[in-house]
Design goal:
Structural class: alpha+beta
Number of helices: 11
Strand content: 25-35%
Oligomer: single chain
Amino acid sequence: MRARGAQVTDIVILVVAADDGVMKQTVESIQHARDAQVPIVLAINKCDKAEADPEKVKKELLAYDVVCEDYGGDVQAVHISAVTGDNLMALAEATIALAEMLELKADPTGPVEGTVIESFTDKGRGPVTTAIIQRGTLRKGSILVAGKSWAKVRLMFDENGKPIQEAYPSMPVGIIGWRDLPSAGDEILEVESEPRARAVVDWRKYEQEQEKNKEDLKILEEKRKEHQEAHQKAREKYGTLHWKERSFLKYQEKKEQKLLKPKEKEERDSPVLPIIIKGDVDGSVEAIVDIMNTYDASHECELQLVHFGVGDVSENDVNLAETFHGVIYGFNVNAGNVIQKSAAKKGVKIKLHKIIYRLIEDVQEELSFRLPCTVEENPIGEASILATFTVTEGKKKVPVAGCRVQKGQLEKQKKFKLIRNRDVIWKGSLTSLKHHKDDISVIKSGMDCGLSLSEEKIEFKVGDEIICYEEKEVPGKTSWDPGF
């Protein structure tokens, strides 16, 4: 949102609280303004508070190359209070003065150009956008194109919700009349007629599909290459051998796999973290071991305490860790250069700490690292089924659901699930997604569509929900909570 604002505007008013000073979001806003090459006017807010320190804010901003006029820079700083209204007119005057110096002007004639700031669907008015006009004069009846949507302007209103007849450059305006909902950040352009608007939107949709096809083709090519390389390696492995030797080696490999019983294979595949603990005194080791005894996530990863003791890390500890493929944790102890070199040579990790809870956090991180990734379902869009019907395809009758997208968007290539009375009754993919009679790959919020599932036996019911989601692998995290 901040990045879009910086790209659209000509002057950035950077508001910083006089009591809080420079925060993370302040630094982010400065970076966006710098990337967009937009000048800044500094508004130091909350100056009515007793603990306000405007000079501190100015000094902190020096670290981010925002130099106020008081310090020899070119950034105007105005001390304001949003509560009392102090100096708000001075802030407006500073902004106007900067605009005059920069000779910021816009052409109110010619085709309209603008940017969508926000878009939403209103129940009574349909798709609505908030936009900034950057060129030309917008009037009722104008034909606009934004992204993959177009509109014949039916109604306009200002920032106070009052209807207006015209919108000039720099004016924020609400626009009603969109056929589909454009995305925030889309560029608005005026065209001469509705057929021209449809042609532009169709071309953009076609280009998007072609780009997607190219990406899919690239992925397929990479998979094919991987398959060829794996096949070539397999051939090189046995290529120089006599057919009898080749057959014997394959037989041996299969035999080894069979010898590994399912139970043993499961045990071998389950993650294990063997650890060795060394501490400076017995009390320290006892405290650490007591914490380890609270471990209750063996179903995720088994924690094996191979050895614990007092004293510096020794060669025996390294050998033990190598044998068990474990990690050595030391508290307030040392590991000499010879020991560290030996451990590095044998691939053994030695982790030394001086604070117990840091050591425990390290163990938690190591446990999490050994866990498999989990798959999370991230919802992309939601749609409700308004009607059901069947379509004949050849000799088959295919059930189709007539839906309206309530949130987000539906993407045909993603995964879907059907929910009835809060229960998931089906998961899978779509065979078709249509808007009117057109096959589409994406349908956005507020739009109607028809869809059919990959499993034809599933029956739709009015009131069911269709959820579009994507699966994302998330690094595993141990559920063990040592209590601090």
